[in-house]
Specification:
The complex is a heterodimer. Chain A contains three helices and three strands, in the order αββααβ. Chain A is an alpha+beta fold. The longest helix of chain A has 16 residues. Classes of the chains: A alpha+beta, B alpha+beta.
């Protein structure tokens, strides 16, 4: 799951080297924390959170495959 | 994504090959520009110049979409074939394989998300906008048929009950299908209400049409 967020985030931002993702798993819930450069925040959130919503949709689909709930925090 | 590599050598060919080795690409995958033509100089001694070329990997929407989707689907653990075709300003991408149901999601939600992200990646560094359409197992075609049927069914309900009907929220592409389907309907007209992403189509009686 961590890799998936990295792939998506790195393709969207201007500073792929600043992309950091941490993954923690509790029972059947995976919590992902995504960190990007300050100037790239808009690139992963989007207007009215449209990009963040799309990333979460993809994560949710990937989670369904393994019966996991996925939560994405952008910090 | 695409970086230019400078190659040097005694001949232009040698210089290009040096750059290609560094990029691990073949000649078909790059654009080359000769910066300096080699010169032997006087008696091969004075004013000798080596060949210098600039080699840039060809960067097109298809390539970018292909590599992004390949990486993304691989990390989702989904095996599938990605076929890209660019027609004018529309990039059509067809995905085929197992687990396509997961990729479509409820009401195509996941497919739309993948399409949106791919569109962002493809159009990231270009002035020239390319519209990205991703489909799998003819989902979009079937969805269009469903929406056309729904439009006609709802339109006849509107005339029968003499009352306007609001449809559920839809994305712009789906709303467009409804509007287009009922465009020439004599009894009803359509318009959209609300703010994205909850914007929805209203079907109303033609006699209430302000135009």
């Amino acid at each position: 799951m961590k890799e998936l967020v990295e792939v998506i985030a790195k393709s969207l931002v201007d500073n792929p080297d600043s992309v950091e993702v941490t993954e923690t798993e509790k029972r059947n819930t995976i919590v992902l924390e995504l960190k990007v450069a300050e100037s790239d925040m808009g690139k992963v959130i989007g207007r009215q959170g449209r990009i963040a919503k799309a990333i979460r949709s993809v994560l949710k689909a990937a989670g369904t495959k393994n019966d996991k709930r996925v939560i994405l925090d952008i910090v | 994504m695409s970086k230019t590599v400078t190659g040097k050598g005694k001949t232009v060919e040698e210089a290009i090959n040096q750059a290609l080795t560094e990029l691990t690409l073949t000649l078909e995958e790059v654009e080359t520009k000769v910066v300096q033509v080699p010169e032997n100089g006087v008696f091969g001694l004075f004013g000798k110049k080596e060949a210098i070329v600039e080699v840039t990997p060809i960067d097109n929407p298809e390539k970018r979409a292909q590599s992004f989707l390949t990486d993304m689907l691989a990390s989702m653990g989904i095996q599938c074939v990605i076929a890209c075709k660019l027609n004018d300003d529309i990039l059509n991408i067809e995905l085929s394989g197992k687990d396509m149901g997961i990729l479509i999601g409820r009401r195509g939600q996941t497919l739309d998300a993948i399409q949106y992200l791919t569109s962002l990646v493809v159009n990231k560094k270009t002035e020239h906008y390319v519209r990205v359409i991703i489909d799998t197992e003819h989902y979009r075609e079937k969805r269009q048929k469903t929406l056309e049927n729904l439009s006609h069914k709802m339109a006849s309900k509107v005339t029968r009950y003499h009352k306007k009907i609001s449809l559920e929220p839809m994305n712009p592409a789906e709303r467009r299908i409804i509007h287009a389907t009922l465009q020439d309907d004599e009894n009803v007209f359509t318009y959209s209400e609300g703010e994205d992403p909850y914007r929805y189509v209203v079907i109303d009686l033609q006699e209430n049409n302000p135009e």
